Fold L,D-transpeptidase family protein.
Amino acid sequence: MSAIRVDAGAGRLFFGDLDMPCTIGRGGVCAAADKREGDGCTPLGIWPVRGVLLRPGKAAAAGIRLPWRWVREGDGWSDDPADPAYNRPVHLPRAFSAENLLRDDDAYDVIVVLGHNDSPPVPGRGSAIFFHLSEGRPTAGCVAVERADMLRLLPLLAPGDVMEIV
């Protein structure tokens, strides 16, 4: 097991010899127990790396050792605490609120799913905490890096790796 270390205060991400700038949530960081849906806070802690979602035509799967799949039309992620599928992948359209994983920007061309609040999900404690591509501004609570940095890091990750946000 290896750890991707995020130094939120310094805005840096480290993995082995790699050292790169990263972006966190617009609300800064918070203790995982204090994380609330929509607060823009990146939760402190150690989160398992669950797998990767890739946008066809925007990202390549070559060399990825983590479990991965292509994002398809209708793929979403529930962010509605009233949804029985809260903080889980869902199919859109849906009666409950959910993020569309096929965004108009490039942020979700590569999504590394983190195991925050997923075992089991506690409604309202935060959903869709991902490691994804940066858009040059704070995230809604995720960790993000530039595309070139993500593409350097992605093939180095393996099942069992974690992200430590400090």
Q: What stands out?
A: Residues 83 and 95 are 9 Å apart (CA to CA). The chain has one domain: 3-165. The radius of gyration is 15 Å. The helical segments are 147-153.
